[in-house]
Amino acid sequence: MEDQLTAGTGVRTRHAVVVGGSVAGLLAARVLADHAEQVTVVERDRFPDGAEPRPGVPQGRHIHVLLEGGQRALEELLPGLVGELGEQGAPRVGMPEDLVQWQNGRWFRRLPATSHLFTGSRPQLEALVRRRVLADPRIRTVEGTEVVGLLGDSRRVRGVLVRERGAGAAKEARPLEADLVVDASGRGTRAADWLAAVGAEAPHEETLDTGLAYATRVYKDTGGRIGRDHLGYYIMPNPRQVYGGVALPVEDGRVLVTLSGLRGSEPPTDEAGFEEFAGRLPHPVLRDWIAGAEPDSPVHGFRQTANIRRRYDRPGRRPAGFLAAGDALCSFNPVYGQGMAVAAIGAVALRRALSDPRRTPTTFRVQRALFDASRQAWDISSGSDKKMPGARGDGLRSKPGDKVAGWYLERALARYTGDPVVGAALRSVLTLSAPLGVLFAPKVVRAVLFTPQAATPLEPPLLREGG
Predict the structure, then answer these.
(1) Average pLDDT, the chain
(2) Which residues contact 114 (CB under 8 A, 6 or more apart)?
């Protein structure tokens, strides 16, 4: 059978299965609904009625941001969704204007914003996406059910084996036939085992792990300090200062505070230990804010923060009709806030690859498009993490040109906090709204190579510049 995921003759795939119903899986289902008669989303959890955390998203209680590149991708897939986020109260934070931000020993100038983040909770965004996607009658869900294997062989996947979860559920696996299977089951995917069981090769896993752990607690801003002249705080770790802290507002008027540390210096999850750990940050501004705020939740910890990239883009004995997407393909250290944006950018790449009139959408070609959609985020996350003390994994290997590129980037980062030209270019790259090439535009190169570092505030800038 020809390895063609969709047919250019107008013939539609009969049935596609998406493994996992988080943001990446839902957006993949939205795209596939334009190419299949029916799409089934198989989800281990049972979806909540609204914007509630669920067990299958253990990081869902922690800070999430929707980067500008992700906002654009979501608008392409689900027009009007970004407007809905604002209507539902998700805060929109301008960078660098709205944050009191520290990096590499310097405070950022609070210049006019050149990019914006949405900082509403992960459950809020997922609920909005889920409502829009599942309103499509071509998409159905099978909830409380896990995928335990693949149907087919090493040449072609023909569906999945599923098993109900929970007390009283039938324990026998049953087949769910499909012409296409998309694994969007997250960083804990069992796809390697599934592929091995049908005689196929698992992809090589490229890893880079700093051992970073973080802990998050919800607060009420009883003093009304956030929202008056600034919307949050961000203390960014670096190789010489490994502790991080961030406080950002969410949709219900509360504030999420996340503290982070590397292997051996993990933040504790008890109340007293959490507040003590905030005192390790290089400035007391966030610790002092915590001391004046009202706790509104327990402390929740999270430690699965390694960068993992599964190299489906490399040739191997793998079946047609099987794709990996989202964190099942490439997962990042969450400290960079890229996951939801890359899920949306990947879904746009899936749509374009399946609809490209110039090329047959073979499994390998579409998988390569998904891989390429995650490349910039990987370069940012792994490139930063490989400099951190104690980093481990084969992602540490250097590539030709790394030394020169690193020298240039160090100069850019030294000017990031105070130079408006360099700052705007770097923010556009870091928010995945522009390619890395913008850092080499003539005006940026001039600023990086020939402009001295601009003066920056000596103390936390609690007011906007000129305010």
Answers:
(1) 93
(2) 95, 96, 420, 423, 424, 427, 428
At 349, list the tokens.
Answer: 């790449």
Is the omega angle on the peptide bond into residue 334 within 30 degrees of 0, that is, cis? no
Burial class (CB in 10 A: 0-12, 13-18, 19+), 42: buried
Edge-to-edge strand ranges of the sheet holding 13-19? 139-142, 36-42, 13-19, 180-183, 322-324
pLDDT, mean of residues 416-433: 97
d(CA 147, CA 150): 8
pLDDT score recorded for residue 399: 79
Query: Which residue, among 328, 327, 354, 350, has the nearest Cα to 340 in the 3D structure?
Result: 327
Quote the Cα angle for 6-8-11, to 5°: 65
> Both tokens of residue 329?
């393909």
Please say whether the beta carbons of 182 and 321 come within 8 A: no
Question: Would you say 234 and 325 are in contact if contact means Cβ atoms under 8 Å apart?
Answer: no
Neighbours of 161 (CB within 10 A): 17
Backbone angles phi, psi at 145, to 5 degrees: -140, 140
pLDDT, tens digit, 9 for 90 and up, residues 358-393? 988 999 999 999 999 999 999 999 999 999 999 999
The answer to whether residues 56 and 63 touch, using CB atoms and an 8 Å cutoff, is no
pLDDT of the residue at 1: 35
pLDDT > 70? residue 210:
yes
Give the closest residue to 90 by CA, choosing from 124, 54, 114: 124
pLDDT at 9 over 60: no
Q: How many CB atoms lie within 10 A of CB 449?
A: 10
